[in-house]
């Protein structure tokens, strides 16, 4: 295998082919340095519209724009070389028509170089997914709890409490699958419903607050690193960066105030030449 091949990124068909036999490891990324740290360990990096809440302090993802996704998508592409990079189509950039979705997806792919886009697959989005796929744009669907629908749902609420909710999530997943999505994020649903969806669709499912039976898992990186005080029930923390950062900054502030920083090792001693 040539070094060029060894360095090439994973592709959408390679991710799709993992269904049922090799778990797909996914995380979110929004910046180049974080993408560089994650890239050797994950199969898929999602530039999620969660960036609005995680980095920009927005209350929901509804305020995220296509321009924001372009900037963060470019950064993640610069920082990574191996993982498949998927960028979210934000609220308002794809729902009006397949043509609107196509224009937004082309903007994202041209300006960032990302290999695929993700859409929240509510009813009616299936037509858009097949329109994009037929035109060479790999699509990841997103069913169950759909954060862009938070104003309709009245909050971020897990799905699967009623037969109607279960039927709706299953219908969204089947339609997304038939439309040609190469993977489907299943978010915030009862575990047995996630299992049913995983069995019912050909595309691999990527769970978040779903089930270990999903074909892959995704979490928000900042959540697993412990950068937030509060995290949803489905997050497992693998670090406590909040504490680490707080301690480091306290030490820095103490050293500046005491005059201990900068010390001689941190000073330039340049001779006039
Ligand atoms: O925006 C996002 O980060 C997402 C994942 C949490 C699946 O959609």
Give an overview of the whole structure:
The chain has 273 residues and is α/β, with parallel strands linked by helices. The protein has a single domain, classed as TIM Barrel (Alpha-Beta Barrel), CATH 3.20.20. The chain contains twelve helices and eight strands. The chain has an eight-stranded parallel beta barrel, surrounded by five helices. Strand 6, helix 10 and strand 7 form a beta-alpha-beta unit. Helix 3 packs across helix 5 and helix 5 runs parallel beside helix 6. The longest helix has 18 residues. It is globular and about 70 Å long. The N terminus is likely disordered. Bound molecules: 3-methyl-2-oxobutanoic acid. The site of 3-methyl-2-oxobutanoic acid has 12 residues, from strand 6.
Q: Report the sheet with the most strands, covering strand number, pairing sense and barrel closure.
A: 8 strands, parallel, barrel
Q: Tell me the overall shape.
A: globular
CATH class: Alpha Beta
Strand content: 5-15%
Q: On the 0-100 scale, what is the average pLDDT?
A: 95
Which small-molecule ligands are present, each listed once?
A: 3-methyl-2-oxobutanoic acid
SSE layout and pairing:
Elements: H1 3-7, H2 12-16, E1 24-28, H3 32-38, E2 44-47, H4 51-54, H5 66-79, E3 84-88, H6 98-112, E4 116-118, H7 125-134, E5 139-144, H8 150-153, H9 163-179, E6 183-187, H10 191-200, E7 205-208, E8 216-219, H11 221-224, H12 241-258
Parallel strand pairs: 1-2, 1-8, 2-3, 3-4, 4-5, 5-6, 6-7, 7-8
């Amino acid at each position: 295998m040539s070094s060029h091949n060894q360095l090439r990124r994973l592709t959408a068909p390679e991710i799709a082919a993992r269904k049922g036999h090799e778990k797909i490891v996914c995380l979110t990324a929004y910046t180049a340095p974080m993408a560089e740290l994650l890239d050797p360990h994950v199969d898929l990096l999602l530039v999620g519209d969660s960036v609005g809440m995680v980095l920009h302090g927005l209350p929901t993802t509804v305020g995220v724009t296509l321009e924001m996704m372009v900037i963060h998508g470019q950064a993640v592409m610069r920082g990574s070389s191996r993982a498949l990079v998927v960028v979210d189509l934000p609220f308002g950039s794809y729902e009006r028509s397949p043509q609107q979705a196509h224009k937004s997806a082309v903007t994202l792919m041209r300006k960032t170089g990302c290999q695929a886009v993700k859409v929240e697959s509510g009813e009616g989005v299936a037509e858009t997914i097949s329109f994009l796929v037929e035109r060479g744009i790999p699509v990841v669907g997103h069913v169950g709890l759909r954060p862009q629908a938070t104003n309709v749902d009245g909050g971020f609420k897990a799905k699967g409490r009623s037969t109607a909710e279960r039927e709706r999530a299953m219908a969204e997943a089947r339609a997304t699958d038939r439309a040609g999505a190469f993977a489907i994020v299943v978010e915030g649903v009862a575990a047995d419903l996630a299992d049913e969806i995983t069995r019912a669709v050909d595309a691999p499912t990527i769970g978040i607050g779903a089930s270990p039976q999903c074909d892959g898992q995704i979490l928000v990186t900042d959540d697993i690193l412990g950068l937030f005080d509060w995290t949803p029930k489905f997050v497992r923390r693998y670090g406590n960066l909040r504490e680490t950062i707080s301690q480091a900054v306290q030490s820095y502030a103490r050293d500046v105030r005491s005059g201990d920083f900068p010390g001689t090792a941190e000073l330039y001693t340049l001779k006039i030449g």
